[in-house]
Amino acid sequence: MSLFRPRPCGCRAILLALSLGLAALPGAGLAQDIVLKQPIACTLGETCYIQHYVDHGPGPELRDFGCGTASYQGHDGTDFALPTLAAMAAGVDVLAAAPGRVRAIRDGEPDGAFAAGASVANKECGNGVVIDHGGGWQTQYCHLKQGSVAVRPGTKIGAGTRLGQVGLSGKAEFPHLHLALRHDGVDVDPFQPDPAAACDPAPRRTLWQDPPAYVGGGLLQVALTDAPPDFAAVKAGLVPQDVLAADAAALVLWAYGFDSRKGDVVRLTITGPGGFAFAHDAELEKPQALFFRYAGKRAPTGGFVPGRYEATVTHRRDGAEISRKAVSVTLAAP
After folding, report:
1. How far is CA 220 from CA 18, 60, 216, 235, 277, in A?
2. Number of neighbouring beta carbons within 10 Å of residue 209
3. For 98, what's the count of Cα atoms within 13 Å in the CB-facing half-sphere?
4. Which domain holds residue 118?
5. Which among 11, 31, 69, 174 could disulfide-bond with 62, CB atoms 3.0 to 4.6 Å apart, if both were Cys?
6. Are residue 181 and residue 90 in the same domain, yes or no?
7. Do both 126 and 14 map to the same domain?
8. In terms of Cα–Cα distance, which of 49, 55, 50 is closest to 68?
9. Do 159 and 173 fall into the same domain?
10. Residues near 146 by Cβ (< 8 Å), separated by ≥ 6?
11. Rounded to an integer, what is the distance from CA 256 to the centroid of its chain?
């Protein structure tokens, strides 16, 4: 029985073929809906976010269940992402979304192999777990951290059982959990289980116990610094300072976000003592899974006026604000 099968997933594909001979759970064949809990121990919109949804678009057209494009062609699951590599290193648990029996696991695949250029052929899901829930339902959890898988095949588990931790194994370009749901071998979107339904950010029927709100992009982090940071450092988990020197060469506001669309506008504004004011609009030229923009002002002659500087970043789409974050920093006299 092939449980881990090659298919599109959270970073372009799922995993291998792993054969186990465990019996199905009692009640197999029932047509009742499964009820899912959040499969990751984090707060959506604060310490984690949904990067990609299931692709409902026909052919090459992209469409997630909420009428947006937070997906990619053939994507068959939901990607619960962490904003930085530091968050992954700190450890975020992956949880069973529903009770069932563990059908298959894999562990030992290195984190970051795909990003480093290594082949992950036939192991695209990386470290993972498959759970049989009865009634033809299965969930699959991909890209777990190497060495973190905490369950064994054949074990009966409850909803919320710790399966492992979010990682970067397999064909993954950012730390995330790819959750795939299947019924009788057919992919199902838990946000909109009826594939014939029209897209709707608030569908009437979902398979979530507490349906997460639809979010088709937004801001992850903003900060004030004295120079533009390297994007790789931001994704790794750069921790900005609360205090900068007033004789800094510049004051820079940067924004890190996800799922941009062509035409989105990121507005960066800074105000401070002595009438300091700065504003800049950055129009995003193309869709990006992760985006980074910055703007700022060089120091005036004699340096910045010491004091508190406040900044706001907004992310707008089609004239409407979809995300906002604020930050402040103190510029202290040398």
Report:
1. 36, 29, 13, 10, 24
2. 12
3. 24
4. 1-216
5. 69
6. yes
7. yes
8. 55
9. yes
10. 107, 108, 109, 110, 111, 127, 167, 169
11. 13
* Chain segment 180-211, per-residue pLDDT in tens: 999 999 999 999 999 889 999 999 999 999 99
Q: CA 92 to CA 309: how far, in whole Å?
A: 33
Residue type at position 267 = R
Backbone φ and ψ for 236, nearest 5 degrees, come out as -75, -25
Q: H helices within the chain, ranges in order?
A: 85-90, 231-236
In this structure, the dihedral spanned by the alpha carbons of residues 180, 323, 264 and 286, taken in order and rounded to 10 degrees, is: -40
For residues 326 and 270, the answer to whether their CB atoms sit within 8 Å is no
Handedness of CA 73, 77, 80, 81 (dihedral sign): negative
Tell which of 216, 242, 259 closes a domain: 216
* 161 and 21 belong to one structural domain: yes
Q: Is 245 helix (H, G, I), strand (E, B) or coil?
A: strand
Total domain count, the chain? 2
Which pair of tokens denotes residue 323?
């995300």
DSSP 113: T
Strand partners, 309: 329
**Where is the domain boundary, 179, 200, 216?**
216
CATH number assigned to the domain comprising residue 266: 2.60.40.2550
CATH code of the domain containing 175: 2.70.70.10
Residues 149 and 53 in one domain: yes
At residue 90, φ and ψ (nearest 5 deg) are -65, -30
pLDDT for 88-127, tens place per residue? Answer: 999 999 999 999 999 999 999 999 999 999 999 999 999 9
In 3D, which of 73, 88, 92, 64 has the Cα closest to residue 215?
64
Do 68 and 211 share a domain, yes or no? yes
